[in-house]
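Predict the structure of ABC-type polar-amino-acid transporter.
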Amino acid sequence: MTTPMVKAEGVHKSFGAAHILKGIDLEVAPREVFCLIGPSGSGKSTFLRCINHLEKINAGRLSVDGELVGYRQKGDKLYELKDSEVALQRRDIGMVFQRFNLFPHMTAIENVMEAPIQVKGETKAVARARAEKLLDRVGLSDKAGNYPTQLSGGQQQRVAIARALAMEPKLMLFDEPTSALDPELVGDVLDVMRGLAEDGMTMIVVTHEMGFAREVGDALVFMDDGVVVESGHPRDVLTDPQHDRTKSFLSKVL
Ligand code: ADP
Ligand code: MG
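Done. Here is the predicted structure for ABC-type polar-amino-acid transporter.
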């Protein structure tokens, strides 16, 4: 049996008295494109943030590639990882946000080179060679020297994807990567994500792009109010939803 890339078992998360994730169970297989949909406020971003150490779960178990997120287990005891160990876990996970968050004072290629130099201690030459390849992969070779303000939103988002890939992650998290883009710029970003999927990257994609989910997704989960309501193959869930809440949501977005 292969180790799941992500495994959540009874994951709970509260902010103060607000109970946001109410027992999430799911598994993401290696090389899978796993799409996560659901109404605003249902906890999708919170779940991604828990995977990427930006939030801590309150109960349950969450693991990435067989390792508990933020903890080590010895016997039946859990020990919190040290900051340096957390940093090692985080290195393997790339995240792309709705807002691209590029470093404004750096060019496109400098943005892509930054983490490998700072975090892995790579030489500039090695980081630059990889960054050139990555910018080519996202179709932006000719924009390497541009600053973020000199790029469209779609181009900035593709640089953000290249920047995440520069750390050679084994898992990529996308949190509504096209929601902030003008409609005519969405396609180029989705094409880059489709290419990544074809290359076998494991991806969790929070999206409202149902066309992408249907064509590229291997699995689809509909989440509402902190629980997984329905999951299955995207084709099945999108064309033949079983639960009223899924039907009602899809009738609004399709
Ligand atoms: P989604 O991404 O599905 O729209 P979120 O995970 O962003 O949902 O948010 C789920 C709920 O958690 C929302 O009600 C939001 O206000 C709340 N929430 C998210 N982050 C925090 C936080 N840091 N503190 C308090 N409440 C939060
Ligand atoms: Mg969100």
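The chain has a mean pLDDT of 97.
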